[in-house]
Amino acid sequence: MKEKKEKAECLKAYKVRLDAALENTFLRTAMDNFAVAYRTSRENAFAGMDVDAMIQEVADIKADAIKNNEALLEEFTRKAVANGIHVHLADTAEDANRIIGEIAQKTGSKRIVKSKSMTAEETHLNPWLENLGLEVTETDLGEWIVQLRHEGPSHMVMPAIHLSRFQVADLFTDVTGTTQDAEIERLVKVARRQLRKKYIDADMGITGANYAVAGTGTIGIATNEGNARLVSTLPKVHVALIGIDKLLPTIKEALSINRVLPKNATGQAITSYVTWITGPSECKPAAGGKREMHIVFLDNGRKKIAADPVFAQVLQCIRCGACANVCPVYRMVGGHQLGYVYIGAIGLITTYFFHGRENARNLVQNCTNCGACKAVCAAGIDLPKLIKEIHARILDEEGHPLKSLMLGKVLKNRKLFHTLLRTAKLAQKPVTGGTPYLRHLPMIFSKEHNFRVLPAIAETPFRDRFERLNSPLKNPIHKIALFSGCVQDFVYPEQLEAAMKSFARANVSVSFPMGQSCCGLPAQMMGEKDAARDVALQNLVAFENEDVDYIVTLCASCGSHLKNSLPDLVKEYAPEKAAAFAKKIIPFSQFMNKIVGVEPMEGKGRKTAFHSPCHLCRGLGVRQDPKDLINKSGNCYVATAEEETCCGFGGSFSANFPAVSQEILTKKLADVEASGADLLVTECPGCVMQLRGGALKQGRDIQVIHLSELF
Amino acid sequence: MNVTLKENTQEFIEKASLVSARVYRVKDLASALDKALELCRLKLPCDSQMESEQKGTDPMAGEKLRIMAAPNLDEADFTRLDKACREAGDVQLISENLRAYPGGIDMGVTLVDFGIAETGTLVLNSDSEETRLSTMLCETHVAILNEGKIKKTALSMADELNDLTGQASSYTAFITGASRTADIERVLALGVHGPLELVILLVEASS
User: Fold this and answer.
1) Which of A125, A401, A625, A678 has the largest count of CB atoms under 10 Å?
2) CB distance from A178 to chain B under 8 Å?
3) How far apart, in whole angstroms, are the C-alpha atoms of residue A458 and residue B42?
4) CA distance linking residue A58 with residue A477, whole number of Å
5) Closest Cα partner for A204 from A113, A132, A116?
6) What is the homologous superfamily of the domain A69-303 according to CATH?
7) Residues 8-67, chain A: which have Cβ within 8 Å of B?
8) Could you tell me how far CA A199 lies from the centroid of its own chain?
9) CB–CB of B184 and A266 under 8 A?
10) Top-level class of domain A598-710
11) How far is residue B159 from each of residues A66, A529, B167, measured CA to CA in Å?
12) Cis peptide before A384, with omega less than 30 degrees from 0?
């Protein structure tokens, strides 16, 4: 079992671990296959059902249960005690371990069998019991494998997903002293035989629970292997360790969640077994013919989380593991590198609460903010937002690094920021040699950032070109204001220039408020929440006197941030203004396709792939408009595999974790190449930067442009 | 047969088959028990999970003797099935002390309380330890379900489930297919700790 590390890992050591994972070919293939297969199985499992409504129901049920947690705990305890169950409440992980150790000692239990419990992983229960001289055997096949390897699980539902059949065969050869073939069916039978003995000899069984039903004092446990049934049937003592967040009012709520959990976890309609124990159940060899049953409820910070207005939703998690299944970073590096005990997006958040800041510090930065986890979450948790919140909280507690502080300070002062960008333009001359690319990276970037060619800062930013490009219209059909974002303003003004031509052709009048600044997302990504709020307020001021129908942006990341995050950032300062502002935000593609309704035109008929920016498809829910526009531009849209998977940019993510970013990018470009397209269109300058730079660096024959440049 | 019953039965069979359960329709309980015995005699004798364990008690039957457990049948049905087993000669029927068979038994035969069409799930009140063990220590679990007890969804029978689980000492099992795992390379394998296969005998509602 993974023991709490003596000393917190530094970022550099963490990166070394990430590099090693990236070089693990088996892991990479296994993760890739899983990521693709999972999507299909999940889709099939939910076929014909209203997934969004089901997820909303889970979210509502859990949110209510968290609010009423105290009453539910009281009710459960009353019922369970009346039924003859011993109920304990553990404030901390150590308390829980101590209670369970004492139960073992009091009942004279020496040998313990366990079924899978993430909560027991959370408290590091096994090493505690082993220190008391007890023998603990995990009976879930995957958990048993990782236990024998002295590892922690690398996935909440599939603990040994990082291992190959050959590794398992070698392990089982050691355990049985007989050579075992790497044939999965046979390996499973080896486990069946080895573990059967353990069940028979065990004095005590430990399980977790997926549900704790207060109305009847019942626990519900979902398993596929059936091990929890044996663990709770053969030994004379049964202890269930359960987080207080698992409490629900009645079996009805548990059944509603159970409809979603297995489908979202593994694409199964239901697990092979769901066991409902009101207990203590019949146990013939036990005194009185009944098993001694204990339930240990674990707080370990949960009550504090429940009282936190921002983080309470963390407790809605039903531990399906889907946030790992769809995470582009998890896919590259596996669970041991993307979690401490809890894996995946939820793990980045809970590690801070359950296992401390020192174990969360590095993890929480390893997020591209692609939003795939939020889109798949069974309980509707806004995971990317909470990851950023944790990051900000850690910085507030530990002090902000100079780089991040500087960025925050600079962003807050638009004039200073823009002056710096203009100065940078002059300073970069020696490295660009007059080309539009940075040929050699300046000193601030290390060599490993060299996986893509980075663009240079443009000669003239868009804001200085606007007056020249804009010709007032007499009877415009629409009045819009343009939000450029820094990258297009200072690096890719040509993308906005192209859009200006489309607007003019469509008789759309455009204004460009000069007071606009960075959208604030980069500051939020780096945990500089104050700076993000300040620029949000500046942008509100810049646009407040604009008499326009829409605020159009060509940057999906800016658009999604302005529409979804800005109102939350300024809710204590200007909620109405923010709401009005956010309502007007619309991405270029949606505006041109739906609002303007551009007509199809003649074009070159090039086979054109589309990279769907995370913040466009998931952030703004826009999926079809860009594809329609590709066809309307006289080119031919071709579908690519995993069109909606992140390109690996993620703003500061690609600077912090270049090796991971590069691998995600390579996969993306390979998918585009395989589609036969030679033109790749996207709708976010960040994605353009990543994809174009990568295609150039890797010598791939793919031209990358912004959607606006098609017209 | 009314329309809902027919639809539920069809859906149940379809969903149970998806998780590799074998479903047979039989006209009454007696035929169900005959079918169970037939299947038991056809199966390979149990592969004991313990090193040195006595199998059965009849020395004449030797290695070929199969153990069948049917702890939740009523006395008359059990007696009838026991007689059939004795006549067959190669199946020993038991109803208790399943703990004495840690290496496993060939077949567990249980009457189940409900079916859930939506997922092909069986609902079994397993408060009795023998009933529980008969469904776990066996290689083949034969579940006998009355068609009329098939409900559309688990949620639609929340009240019944609330009653079942509301009793102290209650141990209620949802069983869907055989024991399974995909923990090694996500390859599906049946029969990790519990049954290697699940057979469902659907008794026609009219009986």
Assistant:
1) A125
2) no
3) 80
4) 44
5) A113
6) NagB/RpiA/CoA transferase-like (3.40.50.10420)
7) 30, 33-34, 37
8) 37
9) no
10) alpha beta
11) 24, 49, 13
12) no
Provide CB contacts within 8 A for A288, sequence distance 6+.
none
Q: What is the pLDDT of residues A611-649, one digit of tens each?
A: 999 999 999 999 999 999 999 999 999 999 999 999 999
Distance CA B188, CA B182 (A): 5
Cα A194 to Cα A172, A202, A335, B102, B133: the distances in Å are 10, 13, 27, 12, 18
The Cα A163–Cα A172 span in angstroms is 13
Torsion of CA A705, A456, A655, A19, to 10 degrees: 80
Q: Which CATH superfamily, name and number, covers B3-47+65-203? A: NagB/RpiA/CoA transferase-like (3.40.50.10420)
Domain-wise residue ranges, chain B: 3-47+65-203
SS3 state at B93: strand
Domain with CATH 3.40.50.1860 in chain A: 598-710
Under 8 Å between Cβ of A314 and A344 = no
> What is the DSSP pairing of strand B66-69 with strand B105-111?
parallel
Q: Which residues of A667-703 are buried (b: 16+ CB within 10 A; e: fewer)?
A: bbbebbbebebebbbbbbbbbbbbbbbbbebbebebe
Q: Which of B128, B136, B164 sits opposite A229 (nearest CB)?
A: B136
Q: Which amino acid is at A224?
A: N
Q: How far is Cα of residue A259 from the mean position of the Cα atoms in its chain? A: 22
What ipTM was assigned to the predicted interfaces of this complex? 0.95
Which of A34, A37, A281 is closest, CB to CB, to B171?
Answer: A281
Express each pLDDT in B29-69 by its tens digit. 999 999 999 999 999 888 888 765 444 444 444 557 899 99
Q: Average pLDDT by consecutive 10-residue portion of chain B (207 residues)?
A: 88 96 97 97 88 48 80 97 96 95 95 98 97 96 97 97 95 96 93 95 84
Q: Apex CA A114: angle with CA A111 and CA A115, to 5°? A: 160
CA A78/CA A74 separation, integer angstroms: 6
CB–CB of A219/A242 below 8 Å?
A: yes
For β-strands A204-207 and A237-243, DSSP reports them as parallel
Q: Are A158 and B194 inside 8 Å of each other by CB?
A: no
Q: In sequence order, what are the beta bridge partners of B199? A: B22, B142
A200 touches chain B (CB under 8 A): yes
The pTM for the full model equals 0.93
The structure tokens 């039924």 sit at A83
Give the pairing of strands B171-175 and B121-125. antiparallel
Say which residue the tokens 């307020």 belong to.
Answer: A537
Distance CA B111, CA B206 (A): 17
Quote the pLDDT of residue A440. 61
CATH 3.40.50.10420 domain range(s) in chain A: 69-303
